[in-house]
Target: Agmatinase
Amino acid sequence: MRFDEAYSGNVFIGAGSDLEKAQAVLYGMPMDWTVSFRPGSRFGPARIRESSLVHEEYSHYLRRELTEIAYYDAGDIPLAFGNPEKSLSQIAEFVSRLLDLKKVPIGMGGEHLVTWPVVQEVYKHFPGLAVIHIDAHADLRTDYEGEPFSHATPLRKISELIGGENVYQFGIRSMTKEEVSYAEEAGIHFYPFDVLEPLRECLPELAGRPVYVTIDIDALDPAHAPGTGTPEPGGITSKEMLAAIHAIAASEVRVVGADVVEVAPAYDPSEQTPVVAAKLIREMLLGFIK
Model:
């Protein structure tokens, strides 16, 4: 598995070529083996990289430029096609090595199940970890149609690992009654429908803590991001999502890892979905890497 060699494919805009000097490492997790509706998110990371070229390296929101930070694009992890358990193990191994090198992992999915092994490894290095989860779906099922390895289960697994009281969920608008009951019983900070205002209210209590941020692109309304496997009407705008990233960046939390997942380019011929995902990642890099 390679991440310390020169990546020969397209790289995200502004990426440096020196892994040793990098504060953060961007990488792709091209997996969609367990999706419940439409496949295709394995093509997300490559298209996000290509779409990043439409953006400037400078963010006027944050008054920072990508040249001001050191980050490296390691390319996509070569995952075992169609094999969820082996793929998750490969992701865990990759991220573990990044963390040993004291890099901040910034991932691109892929389906949301890819977040599970990343958080497992981050938690080993940061045992006081909290997770901020922005999504249309709760992802709190124990299984989907009898399969525990599903993109409907990662936050349940994460909650059971780090404790529900350390999980903060925003924007959820699609869930089962059982998922709501579990969220209440587990002490999850569960904020359906809205993102920005409840997030701003919660950030002060996370001050000083290590935080992992995971964003499912389907938190956005399909009008803003149609290119995803399980679109859900009634979501937030891209402007509100950017404001949420900026609120986290301006807070006193310590972001120790992040990802954007579930971009499926085939369902968006306009390409607005990978374009907005690329902008979210630019703002994460500029806002989270101090």
